[in-house]
Amino acid sequence: MASQDSNINIAMLTEENWCNRMNKLIECDLENEMPITIFRVPNSLVAIKPEAYSPQVIALGPYHHLQPELHELDRYKVAAAKKTNKHFQLAGLQQLVEEIENKQVPSIRACYRGHLALQKKTLALIMVVDSLFLLGLLKTLEENGQNCHSKSLAPSFLVDCSGKKLPRDAILKDVLMLENQIPFFVLNEILAKTSSNTTTSSSEDMLASMLVKFREEFCPIKLMSWSNSSSEVVKHHHLLDLLYQSITFDPDNCGDSQAKSSFNRTHDSESSTVPLNPNIFSKLWGIIPSINVGCMTVIKRVTDTFIAILEVFGTSSLAFLNEKKVLIHSVSKLCSAGVKFCAAKGGTRFVRFDVKSLEFYLPVIVLKPTSEVVMRNLVAYETMAKSESLNFKRYTELMSAIVDTNEDVELLKQAEVIDSKLSADEIVEIFNGMTKSMESKDMVIDEAIKEVNKYYNNTKKAKAYRLMKKYIYSSWKILTVFASLLLLLLMGMQTFCDVYSCPSLLSKTKAA
């Protein structure tokens, strides 16, 4: 009976909480509310590489503040917040907490996907401490490389009370994660609370100056021109949104319509299903040369000649039997077909293929230790926030398809499309780890892929290769039977010769 009562109480409490939440939503002006811009990353993405989406060192914002493994740096985070508060001559921390609690908590809650089961004061405290820490980090990055004066924040910011330097790259990776984002309006609100009565415009200018330097340092795509207007920079939702909008910026505003890809993913007339495994023929063909029969010299020459012919058409041995359909061919294959890779002057909206000059324009990608985390979280943000064209996700799929080997990386470096001090192996690993799915669509990138594939498939080499693949692949069953019979015949001949000594029989026949 007691168990039933407790279950009823739990159900009533849950129902009561739900009713309270619904009543608050009814009272809110939902049409004029802040848009949801900070999301939980879907489990399907997190499962692939958890450390790229879940903070490993430091938690910012409400999503991860209660994780015990991230509490180690809480003391440092508070100390850094105090340094930042002093540097900007802001109001006292408690006063800032009260200001945020009284004015900004409803807007803050609206920015995060899902219900935040936190009291107003708790949420305000989290946002003030974390915002001050982030402002201090942004200011440190802005001052980096400049002549640090006596009041500079940079020299001591990433150093704990014992003088130990904190893991800069690890902290920056966490700061760039989608679930660790802090809304810009909170940063601006805190900067406006200086003891010198800073106006809203001057606080925006201070914030914009730091954000511009941050964007230059961590944007994975190198852009020839940036919008550095304070109002333009600060209007973005958070750091990840700033990077995303800069990368996918479309001057003609053509990316706002629903993308209708003209790229036909089933452009090849081949069936996508294979009834049996063609490896059988490949394995049998590999066994035949190993049989020790006098006539095998001729067989080996025929085999070697056949393999050499295949290699002329760009395949190794009988690998063409096992090939899967690809989005687009690798850099090395495209270059061998006459395609020239060139650096585009804009972001991912500027991907294009010039049919006349055979120039394939790609944005310059800058790869650093933090780049993989940035790109993965940009894809996650785009997937969650955008319902139309997934331009950046399609770009990562394109790069993942064309970069397969170290040779591909070196060719893109020579074309100045990749700018990185990372090794070729590290760069290949980054792209091979990204998704290779064909689920996303983007009108601009799909059109470029379609044009490149159209050109490549019309080259003499590709036509000859497809012709050979068509006839050999379609007749592999016959070839398998032939190879099996030939194998049995040759094995029988080898057994016969081992028993009756073929060389001596041949010599007697010649003597007669």
Q: Tags for this entry?
A:
single chain; 512 residues; five-stranded mixed sheet; 23 helices; 5 strands; 4% strand; disordered N terminus
Structural account:
Mean pLDDT is 78; it is low at 1-12 and 254-276. The protein starts with a helix and ends with a helix. Helices cover 55% and strands 4% of the residues. The protein is mainly alpha-helical and 512 residues long. The radius of gyration is 32 Å and the shape is elongated. The protein contains 23 helices and 5 strands. Helix 3 (74-87) packs across helix 6, helix 18 crosses helix 19 and helix 22 packs across helix 23 (502-511). Strands 1, 2, 3, 4 and 5 form a 5-stranded mixed β-sheet that branches.
Q: What summary fits the major beta sheet?
A: 5 strands, mixed
SSE topology string: HHHHHHHHHHEHHHHHEEEHHHEHHHHH
Oligomer: single chain
**Residues in helices, as a percent range:** 55-70%
Rg from alpha-carbon coordinates: 32 Å
Unreliable residue runs: 1-12, 254-276
Structural class: mainly alpha
Number of helices: 23
State the total count of DSSP E strands: 5
Mean pLDDT, all residues = 78
Distance between the termini: 109 Å
Strand residues, percent: under 5%
Shape: elongated
Brief rundown of the structure:
The chain has 512 residues and is mainly alpha-helical. It has helices spanning 2-27, 43-46, 74-87, 93-103, 105-111, 120-143, 154-157, 168-175, 184-191, 200-218, 230-234, 239-247, 279-287, 296-312, 331-336, 371-385, 391-402, 406-414, 424-433, 443-457, 460-474, 476-500, 502-511, and strands spanning 221-222, 340-344, 352-354, 359-367, 418-420. The N and C termini lie far apart (109 Å).
